[in-house]
Amino acid sequence: MTLTIRDKADTLGTFRFVSVQLMETLARWVPTTPELEVKTLFGRHIWDLAQHADALGKRTFELRAALHYSRRPADSYGRELERLTAVTGTADRIANMYDVVLPDLAGRYDAYLRDADPLLDEPSVRVIARIVADFPRFATDRAAVIRERAELARPQRAANGLGEVAQMVEFRAAGEAVAPEAP
Fold first, then answer.
1. Distances, alpha carbon 79 to alpha carbons 32, 52, 67, 82, 165, in Å
2. How many Å apart are CA 142 and CA 145, to the nearest integer?
3. Which of 33, 60, 111, 160 could be a cystine partner for 65, CB 3.0 to 4.6 Å?
């Protein structure tokens, strides 16, 4: 699939929106998570997701969109992200974030890298490749916490419907403005 510059900006803007949402979700969870090891896990990954959002936002500007352009994902994907924010128990939070949402996002980044032209879209490919390089560490960090706190490996609710959401990006119609959208 060949994407136009506008489509690339929309895709990276959507990735940015999702990164900001995940960062804010983890930040909301920190004060209500009693386990110090998990607070530390979330804190490390808040910073990583902020770096991802920043890199994506700078790239959207290079693609002729606004600096730090964010675009809401497709409604079905957005609803799943909203469900994530409502998760309460620590084990459920870990399972939903690290076993469902982040692997789904990594798969979507991988799909972008597979479909992108490495020559014509080299800057975007490089930004996303740097982001994807953090995902194995997310899993390693999560596993380290579970080794220390085995009781957190048993979630009550780990089901999330992201795997059923085929389309994450809603592309702009011709002539639609590129003004930044607050996440």
1. 22, 22, 26, 5, 10
2. 5
3. 60
Give the residue-averaged pLDDT of 26-30: 97
The DSSP call for residue 135 is H
**What backbone phi and psi angles, to 5 degrees, belong to 81?**
-65, -40
Q: According to the model, what pLDDT value does residue 60 have? A: 95
Q: Any residues with CB less than 8 A from the CB of 183 and at least 6 apart, and which?
A: 17, 20, 21, 24, 70, 72
CB neighbourhood size of 71 (10 A): 24
Contact 42, 141 (CB under 8 A): no
Within 8 A by CB and 6+ apart from 153, the residues are 91, 146
Domains of the chain: 5-148 (1.20.1260.10)
- Both tokens assigned to 4: 């136009």
Would you say 167 and 14 are in contact if contact means Cβ atoms under 8 Å apart?
no
Percent of the chain with pLDDT over 90: 75
Q: Does residue 47 surpass a pLDDT of 90?
A: yes
Q: Tens of pLDDT along 95-115?
A: 999 999 999 999 999 999 999
